[in-house]
Amino acid sequence: MASVTSSATNFLTRKVRGFFTKKTLNARLPITQWLPKYNLEMLEGDVLAGFTVGLTVIPQGIAYALVAGLDPNYGLYSSFMGCFVYTLLGSCKDITIGPTAIMAIMTHEYSGAGGPDFAVLLSFLSGLIILASGTCNLGFLITFISKPVICGFTSAAAITIASSQLKGLFGLSYEAEGFIETCELLIENIAGTRWQDITLGICCIVSLLAMRKLKDLKAVKPNASDPTGKKVLKKLVFLSSVGRNAIVVIVAAIVAFAVPENTFKLTDTVQPGLPSIEPPPFSTVVNNETYSFGDMMASVGSGVFIIPLISILESIAIASAFSGGKTIDASQEMIALGFCNIVGSFVQSMPVTGSFSRTAVNATSGVRSPAGGIVTGLLVVLALAFLTPYLQYIPQATLSAVIICAVIFMVEYEMVLPIWRTRKLDQLPLWGSFLTCLFWKLEYGIVVGVGINLALLLYGIARPKVEVTAVTRQDGDEPAYVLVEPRSGLFFPSIDHIRAVVSKAGRGTANGNMAVVIDCKHFVGVDFTAAKGIKNLCTDYEKRQQDLIFINVTPGVEQGLRAVSDKLNIVTSQLELYSSLKSASTKNLESKGI
Amino acid sequence: MASVTSSATNFLTRKVRGFFTKKTLNARLPITQWLPKYNLEMLEGDVLAGFTVGLTVIPQGIAYALVAGLDPNYGLYSSFMGCFVYTLLGSCKDITIGPTAIMAIMTHEYSGAGGPDFAVLLSFLSGLIILASGTCNLGFLITFISKPVICGFTSAAAITIASSQLKGLFGLSYEAEGFIETCELLIENIAGTRWQDITLGICCIVSLLAMRKLKDLKAVKPNASDPTGKKVLKKLVFLSSVGRNAIVVIVAAIVAFAVPENTFKLTDTVQPGLPSIEPPPFSTVVNNETYSFGDMMASVGSGVFIIPLISILESIAIASAFSGGKTIDASQEMIALGFCNIVGSFVQSMPVTGSFSRTAVNATSGVRSPAGGIVTGLLVVLALAFLTPYLQYIPQATLSAVIICAVIFMVEYEMVLPIWRTRKLDQLPLWGSFLTCLFWKLEYGIVVGVGINLALLLYGIARPKVEVTAVTRQDGDEPAYVLVEPRSGLFFPSIDHIRAVVSKAGRGTANGNMAVVIDCKHFVGVDFTAAKGIKNLCTDYEKRQQDLIFINVTPGVEQGLRAVSDKLNIVTSQLELYSSLKSASTKNLESKGI
């Protein structure tokens, strides 16, 4: 027992020491990589980008809190801690962590029993699961979600979110889930459209789209030869373009404040002040009913696994999109995301993840390091402390316009053609995940897409290409033989197919006993089932008195094959092959009495 | 509409015509292959083997009917139709279809609501599903069940079945499910052991094991120089060895008939006469309660999918074991098995599949074609018609002894070592499936084993071996470069890994800008995700102003890669590689102003 404890202690000591080696420290605390190189120029970029993202996240956070079925202030509570934590642990400079539309929908779905306490608990538990997955290096699992699946998922999510915001734009009130129900209820309720809201909403959308284009205009591009005044003007135009969400919201709020009450549907009151710092709730009371931890777990159900999964998926997908040429350390991203959710749950945050739209804003605003998150976080904290009385004047139609304009460009219709050109079969996971996401449920879409992808992959493994060539007599006296070249590894699902092809290749020879040579250069390993299959193949050929020769066998494969069959004819060179073939043909002729 | 109908008719006509081409006919009606070559010598072997199998299946069938919770006569009803149908459609001469221990356990589990009607309906529905799977060529799915998984499953099934028979051997009465519960109840009830039964049981086991050894004795081996009398004697000894089950049962029944009543626990009365030929029951009455088809379906539940799965698995596993060198046409075996179950359900058969023990008896008795099944089937029909009054004298302990002696040799402990020597990782699916089967449920064991196997396979695909070699300057003036050779295909799960290795290989070079050459000879195809990854890799290298050259690219892969990235540097020969490397190094020197 003592030795068990001591070896466990040793193991832990090694793990802890291992963590503090420089390499691990750099990988696990990416801030140690960029902070020593930090300079004033980077600071400028980070402050500008961080401020812009802050102006975007305030209205978005409020909107997403409503999507999640929570009070608006919870959106702001969720918007700052993730930024701070990611600065320390994040490895991708552009990513900004906070509330997102998809996470809000998920939170609404799984904290259905009601109340922010469920959302906060979900954030804490999701964080734990994401952190554990990252610590166990499960990041490599993310490689099984292919680009077409991500593309289908993102596009369907964008359409679902945009459609869900139409009710705010039209000034309607109904509760719908999913794309289909949203469309049905929209058509049912369309007669109740409020002209004030739709007018404001359309004005906001037009302004947002126009200002989005602004920064791409040639006239606005900075030019070294510009006089200072023109430079400042250009910078202002650029700023108003990247900060368009904030500007539209502020202007709309001023208009709403000026016009008579009830002209527009407004945001619910934002409770003033910063959230208290306290542990996440492990029991709660909703409608005079007490929920124990067990009751809460039963209520959130499978959400406790699906929310972390979607959270990881969304964040990693964004990290991949903005990585430039760099390979993502998915496990480190998961550790960072896990801590964002865990620490966030102490300031009443709902589950958070990387935001596609704000990450894009961050990148185009010239962020240089994850430190931009500090500025964003501080701005949200300031808003909570001093601006809450004014936040309630934000019209719902404006928030809907902001969200629609942010997500609609996530529909990746332009990917269909390149995917078709690269590999036609990849359309199956693309459309499989897109249609399932859109017409069934977002999370099922990923499962369906990954399922189709794996089925295609496994079918390819089970039925590898096997090239069969008849090698005829050269001008010298080399004997003729049949060359069989399986174009893939030797694994249990493919051995039956390879065996069938090799058997057929042997039977198909002119005189029925030409030697068959298997080129094993594509075999990287062998499992027991495959080794058994090769053994049976050898026995089969022995019965037929036909030669079966293996060439280009790596030592590992040879060892595996020899473990089950001792009568393998393996040659190591073309020369040895020829001499083996010759002696075989002489033997054959002798046995026939020639 | 008319054109739709006509094109559908055309399609059907083509399908039907396609079926009657010689090749398809041979594959789908294997009897057309062996019947034209049939001769007297084959007939002799088939009659002897068929008779021996018949003598074995009669007591086994009665025993398995009891395992399935049915009256003994249903075991015999299940034992003849499969033999007849398989003769027509089966492609493996040794296999004998009928009731088996595993199918009996499954039938008992899923026809739990009671009554043979459920078992017969399960046989019909299972047959339909097996037939449909075979017709859709789903046979290839069987390749995903590796040898170690089959080995773990078979061994655990053998132990489970043997342990379940101990109660008959000890003369006890209890109802247990699974290995654990059986052991618990056996220990609990052991005090009630009946000495008459255990004595008879042990005598039977000793006799069976001794007679099993008999045929392997040197003195019994046939010798051409033997006088006729000795030949006949040897043949008789051989026959008594292969027919030992029947002999033991007949002798025990005579003993039971001779001794006073109630000395031994006997078999329930076997209802005399042949089963009536009628469609399977789509509604039934059990204990005065009427079950509609829907009620029956609800009662059998997932059994309607699991029984076909296990049935296919067991039959194909046996076919693989006895195929010799031949590759199994799994789809054809499924079609045959499907018809066996469907036609069987018209004579009140429970679900049937290939029997491991009887197939072994068939093979060692020298069967020459599937026609042996006709003899077996006829013998069972004769037994039903004339021998039923005597079948009730078969003691339960004897039946238990027969089953224990048949299955105990299916524990494949001798496979552990070769699997270890071939590939140590293959122990995981072996023990995963074995332990799950033994301590949880037989059917879950297969799922767990296949899951472990696929996880190992996919991990291998996601993390392929990538060899990195620094190719230094030859004696000529070829420039030095880094050769990267991924040892596996280019699929979406592996692209991140390959990209990381290639990036690292480039950064690791001495002067930081040595060209990197990717040898693509193992790439058989490319999907969109992988093509995107390669594109990002190229962009990455372009940024670093380092050369990235692809060699040995197949046309298919090149087309896929070019669909997403236009700046690929692909060379087609070693010569072109050198000239490309030289021009690149000149360009580099120029750009550095040298």
List keywords for this structure.
594 residues, mainly alpha, Transcription Regulator spoIIAA, five-stranded mixed β-sheet, 63% helix, 5% strand
Question: Which secondary structure elements does this structure contain, and how are they paired or packed?
Answer:
Two copies of one chain form a homodimer.
Chain A: H1 2-19, H2 22-28, H3 31-34, H4 40-67, H5 72-89, E1 97-98, H6 101-110, H7 116-135, H8 147-164, H9 166-170, H10 178-189, H11 195-214, H12 228-242, H13 244-258, E2 284-286, E3 289-291, H14 293-300, H15 303-322, H16 330-344, E4 353-354, H17 356-364, H18 372-391, H19 396-407, H20 416-422, H21 427-439, H22 442-462, E5 466-471, E6 481-486, H23 492-507, E7 516-519, H24 528-543, E8 548-551, H25 555-564, E9 570-571, H26 574-591
Parallel strand pairs in A: 6-7, 7-8, 8-9
Antiparallel strand pairs in A: 1-4, 2-3, 5-6
Helix pairs in contact in A: 4-5, 4-6, 4-13, 4-17, 4-18, 4-19, 5-16, 5-18, 6-15, 7-15, 7-16, 8-10, 8-19, 8-21, 8-22, 11-12, 11-13, 11-19, 15-16, 15-17, 21-22, 23-24, 24-25
Task: Explain the overall architecture.
The structure is a homodimer of 594-residue chains. The radius of gyration of chain A is 32 Å and the shape is elongated. Chain A has 594 residues and is mainly α. The first copy, chain A, has helices at residues 2-19, 22-28, 31-34, 40-67, 72-89, 101-110, 116-135, 147-164, 166-170, 178-189, 195-214, 228-242, 244-258, 293-300, 303-322, 330-344, 356-364, 372-391, 396-407, 416-422, 427-439, 442-462, 492-507, 528-543, 555-564, 574-591, and strands at residues 97-98, 284-286, 289-291, 353-354, 466-471, 481-486, 516-519, 548-551, 570-571. In chain A, a hairpin with a 2-residue loop joins strand 2 and strand 3 (289-291). Chain A folds into two domains: 38-413, no CATH class; 466-591, STAS domain (Transcription Regulator spoIIAA, 2-Layer Sandwich), CATH 3.30.750.24. Chain A is 63% helix and 5% strand. Chains A and B meet through helix 20, helix 22, helix 23, helix 24 and helix 25 of A and helix 20, helix 22, helix 23 and helix 24 of B.
